[in-house]
Amino acid sequence: QVQLVESGGGSVQAGGSLRLSCAASGYTYSSYCMGWFRQAPGKEREGVATIDRDGSTSYVDSVKGRFTISQDNAKNTLYLQMNSLKPEDTAMYYCAAVGPRMTAIQALGVKAPFVDYWGQGTQVTVSS
Q1: CA–CA separation, 87 vs 68, rounded Å?
Q2: Exposure pattern of 55-67 as b/e (b: 16+ CB <10 Å)?
Q3: I need a labelling partner for 26 at 20 to 30 A (CA). Which of 13, 77, 81, 88 fits?
């Protein structure tokens, strides 16, 4: 079965960095547009960064210049490097196999019920 297993979350002070990883299995990783989504308490889950089969990326405006999404297709692993973290980045971060044949821009705007597969989430807490 499909599994997306995140790691790398934690607590950090504002200005710090974290790197999230997501190990994928159970499907053809390279056929999917992948992404990181986040959900803060009381808010909707939102797309943070996505990467498509061609390696094109898309970011929500609030993280541009601070976060970098990447992937290693040989290892079926997705990454999110988060630098210059802010308290407003505090949320549960989810790895997602958004959908096949989708561009990074399309995937960033996909609503949660329409994402094909989710990981279990990893908590990121940024203190001021």
Answers
A1: 18
A2: eebbbbeebeeeb
A3: 81
In 3D, which of 88, 93, 86 has the Cα closest to residue 13?
Answer: 86
Those residues with Cβ within 8 angstroms of residue 124's Cβ, 6 or more apart along the chain or in another chain: 9, 10, 12, 18, 20, 38, 82, 85, 89, 90, 91, 92, 93
Spatial distance between the Cα atoms of 99 and 116, rounded to a whole number of angstroms: 6
Q: What is the pLDDT of residues 42-95, one digit of tens each?
A: 999 999 999 999 999 999 999 999 999 999 999 999 999 999 999 999 999 999
Length of the chain, please? 128
Q: Rounded mean pLDDT of 8-28?
A: 96
